Amino acid sequence: MASAPLMQRVAKWHIWLGWLVGVPILMWLVTGLFMVSRPIEEVRGNHLLRERAEEPLVLPGSTLASAEFPLREMRAVMQDGRAVAILTGIDGRVRRIDMASGAALPPLTASEARRLVAKRIEGGSSVRNVTSFEPSDVPFDFRREMPVWQVVLEGGTHVYVGRDTGEIEAVRTRWWRAFDFMWGLHIMDLETREDTSHPVLILFAALGAIGALLGCVLMFRRRKARISAT
Known about the structure:
Helix 1 (3-36) packs antiparallel against helix 5. The protein folds into three domains: 3-37 and 197-229, no CATH class; 47-105; 106-194, no CATH class. Strand 3 (94-98) and strand 4 (104-105) form a beta hairpin. It is 40% helix and 20% strand. The strands form two sheets. Strands 1-2-3-4 form a four-stranded antiparallel β-sheet, with no helix packed on it. Strands 5-6-7-8 form a four-stranded antiparallel β-sheet. It is built from five helices and eight strands.
């Protein structure tokens, strides 16, 4: 019998907690349902963009204009104290060019990738192994089709260095990989972890919002019943 007052207090705390968190939970579920109801590409207006044929980038009077493939874009960076142009072709190929001489630079070697990681990443000198991956076989935590070196550090961090770009393309810590898994569960897409609008997610978001709304209504009913009892 002594436990009855304790259970009554727990029930009272539960009701007050329901009042405190019920509205935010309902708000999160309703806003979440709204956000997943349409594909993010449609929200961004990508479907309104008219397709047009890609035009190659023309660089008149430049030594870079002698590139062996039509260019889509170019960006300039400093690498090892020299200006380097990273050229992306319309077909997706990437090349590095020394901007001073116009000479093509070779892909990064494993030792060069190691040196870059040691220079740019905290703890980057503690390397466990270095592995080369082709665009069609990149690890799941990278998910970009490009040739890369995967530099695995002692702490479990994966650093991805572009073989053709000579740049650090991604850093994946153990926390990032755990977050990525949780994100996949959150949007109910463990396969690609990118689809934020699909029927299963919309269905459960709707059911959750309805359940939270009914819970809020029942709290008013419970409060009315307690007032009537007194």
